[in-house]
Design brief:
Structural class: alpha/beta
Largest sheet: 7 strands, mixed
CATH superfamily of the largest domain: Vaccinia Virus protein VP39
Helix content: 10-25%
CATH topology of the largest domain: Rossmann fold
CATH class of the largest domain: Alpha Beta
Shape: globular
Radius of gyration: 21 Å
Order of helices and strands: HEEEHEEEEHEEEEHEHEHEHEHEHEE
Strand order of the largest sheet: 14-13-12-15-16-18-17
Number of domains: 3
């Protein structure tokens, strides 16, 4: 397959998933609340060694069948796109994401189930296709899924050179949040002590461990805590300590942290006071919330209320959009610094 055709297939693949795709130099970027870097390599133009030399950490890589051997030799998420014959039907596909080798459909919309499955299989090499029946629910905020194709739901997802074992039917995980996880991890400074609340299978914690002196990851869901433990071992992330339990019970015994990450936008406000109490002087909190249309001030007032109650100063460093929940609801991260010595 020539390079131009391969890039066109990558563009089509992500546009079918609801992304806006732009070409920037020798790469494509897909945006849907956050940016994903895509690189396509045709065997007509590149050799295996040239691909290895051109790939940077975190980029999603697409190759044709002539370069399929690259999949086992790089840490990136690699997809192999196949040449299609001219008489193959063009199936319509709904918006979906791919976690490891599992496709997750958030909403079929008006697409027929069988056509959705055929369309995804036409473009993705996956072992299972799941349809989310409801939003996140229950104590552990896990989605309810229907299996449209395949039976096995445990997979290994590659992200920025790390591998995460996960079953999306047992614990929440979104590959579309990967860019945001890397953004936060890149802010960690050498020697920091980091706390990740609601840690899930450990992607925030393990990415942060590159520079942190110590990372504590707390997860209440027993399934999530077990995957967290497995992923610490899988990635040899010795600086990460995974703890199963409720943050309200666990965190009071842990002391203070230079950085606290709170990736639970639905109800992080209920734990904000706890985070402020355990942030060291000039420590940073990454506070995730859903911003409904026009309620940015309300989110900032949540921070103001908890810090002023403790007679502390704070400064908002950044407000970053990192995904959409609906037409008028955006997930945001408010990065703010707490000053305790005045």
């Amino acid at each position: 397959m020539n390079q131009e055709k391969l890039e066109a297939k990558v563009r089509e693949l992500f546009e079918r998933q609801g992304f806006k795709v732009k070409k920037e130099g020798n790469r494509l970027t897909a945006s849907n609340g956050q940016k994903i870097v895509l690189k396509a390599f045709s065997s007509d133009k590149y050799s295996t060694e040239e691909v290895k030399a051109s790939v940077e950490s975190g980029e999603k890589v697409f190759v044709d069948e002539g370069l399929e051997e690259i999949e086992s030799s790089v840490d990136n998420d690699v997809s192999i796109l196949h040449e299609e014959s001219g008489d193959e039907p063009d199936y319509e596909t709904p918006s979906y994401e791919v976690i490891g080798d599992i496709a997750v459909i958030n909403d079929l919309a008006s697409v027929d189930r069988e056509e959705a499955v055929e369309g995804i299989l036409q473009h993705q090499n996956v072992k299972a296709i799941l349809l989310k029946k409801e939003g996140l629910s229950g104590e552990f905020r896990v989605g309810d899924y229907e299996k449209l194709y395949g039976t096995e739901t445990e997979t290994i997802h590659k992200e920025f050179g790390y591998r995460f074992k996960v079953d999306p039917t047992e614990v929440y995980f979104s590959e579309r949040f990967g860019t945001e996880r890397k953004r936060v991890a890149d802010q960690v400074e050498e020697g920091e002590k980091v706390l990740v609340m609601f840690a899930g299978v450990g992607p925030f914690a393990i990415l942060c461990s590159e520079k942190a002196e110590k990372v504590i990851a707390v997860e209440k869901n027993p399934a999530g805590a077990e995957y967290l433990k497995k992923n610490i071992e899988l990635n040899k992330a010795d600086k990460v300590e995974g703890i199963e339990g409720d943050v309200k019970e666990v965190v009071p015994e842990l002391g203070e942290f230079d950085r606290i990450i709170m990736p639970l936008p639905e109800s992080a406000d209920q734990f904000l006071g706890l985070a402020v109490d355990h942030t060291s002087n000039n420590g940073v909190i990454h506070y995730y919330r859903f911003r409904e249309e026009g309620n940015q001030e309300e989110l900032e007032e949540e921070i103001e209320a908890e810090t002023s109650r403790r007679s502390l100063d704070y400064e908002i460093i950044d407000v970053v959009e990192c995904g959409e929940r609906g037409p008028s609801s955006t997930r945001v991260c408010i990065d703010f610094q707490v000053t305790k010595d005045t």
